[in-house]
From TrEMBL:
Residues annotated as signal peptide: 1-28
GO CC list: outer membrane-bounded periplasmic space
Stretches assigned to the PDZ domain: 97-165
GO biological process entries: proteolysis; signal transduction
Protein name: Carboxy-terminal-processing protease
Family assignment from sequence similarity: Belongs to the peptidase S41A family.
PANTHER family noted in UniProt: CARBOXY-TERMINAL PROCESSING PROTEASE CTPA (PTHR32060:SF30), TAIL-SPECIFIC PROTEASE (PTHR32060)
InterPro entries, sorted: ClpP/crotonase-like_dom_sf, CtpA/B_N, PDZ, PDZ_sf, Peptidase_S41A, Tail-specific_protease
Source organism: Sulfurovum sp. enrichment culture clone C5
A Pfam family of this chain: Peptidase_S41
Catalytic EC class: hydrolase
Amino acid sequence: MIKKTKPFILFSIAVAIGSYFIGLNANAEPPVVEQPQTNQNISKEKLEAYIKFTKILNLIEHEYVDETNTTILVDKALKGLMSNLDAHSSYMDKKEYKDLNVHTKGEFGGLGISVGMKDGSLTVIAPIQDTPAYKAGVKAGDVIIKLDNKATMGMNIDEAVSIMRGKPGSSITLTILRKNETKPREIKINRAIIKVQSVFAKIIDGDLLYIQVTSFDQNVVKEVKKALTKYSKAKGIVLDLRSNPGGLLDQAVGLTDLFVDKGVIVSQKGRSKAENITFSAKADKDDVKTPMVVLVDGGSASASEIVSGALQDLKRAVVVGEKTFGKGSVQAVIPLGNEEGLRLTVARYYLPSGRSIQAKGVDPDVVVHLGSITNGTTNNGLIKESELDKHLTVGDANTTTEVMQNTLSNKGNNISESEVNKDSQLKSAIDILKALIITEGRK
């Protein structure tokens, strides 16, 4: 996610109409170079669209059965406009804009879940570990049909998030549909201050460093650096990005940069040339030699996919687990004054190899499913970017289930053998890491 500070220049309908009639003035001298007819048609089409919007707004204001408020009507129109662009663009009112700024700082009031729209339904992408939603048993793939007594059908993401957040200690009841269950279930959750600890570091077998990143807030790079310094003698690293819904782009780039010293980490390409940016590794005191495995699953999205995909492309780590979510688009946060803003999709991400993850995801080098496996395959009920309403297609690089909760405890500095044995993906990652260590030692 990128936060932009450049102001928006808003062109009023009056200016558009004035420009249009000046251009069509029959008595005016013809220009030296005549504009193509197609451009004139486009201008006329735009004008007609502006007039239609204003006409409908006036009709609602004067003819609707109840008295309306123009500001509220325009806000609702903007929300509808943005939500129909793609799954991640949105208009943020004062409360939503404030909530976004608070969330990226790693502390906010609410339940602790990441949600998306699938087939018009509000669906859980992943609960954040050790939050009220996680402890109450909310799982990836759950479809939320009611928030208290308010149906979620037709509700956009921002409205749903606004309802789920609230005063710490207050409660909300989620009515959910879960795969393979015939009846809805109600889950009552008490809101809390969600102060997310985004990085957990532990030791496995005495000399393997396990780093779990649960979300990409502004503290990730700093906390991972601390872990690498504290456990500098580790012979191998497991980076766990499972069910990490993403977050800040600079933290994803910075985290990857801790493990590589050269090469492109990620690039973004958009319609505007200003959005065509390449982020490259910097030669620094990086850990470029310690054998490394990255764990991912269907809940690994956005920033998680940038990190895992870049480390995979740069041959720095082996990626283990399940295919990732597939969110490869860039959202810029553009302020509208001091209290409102737009979250606008402005570009697509591309990994070092030039491939896009949009609606595709990152395929692990070694596929390992968590839990029971039927006929060798499972998707664990996790939704993908390609299943979200209004998801972007991959685009041209040259143009503009019931999921098992992480069984690891966050208490203590070590992961026990019994905990490892309950997590087939982690067990496979450790086995692969040990093989890498042996291979490196023989060179």
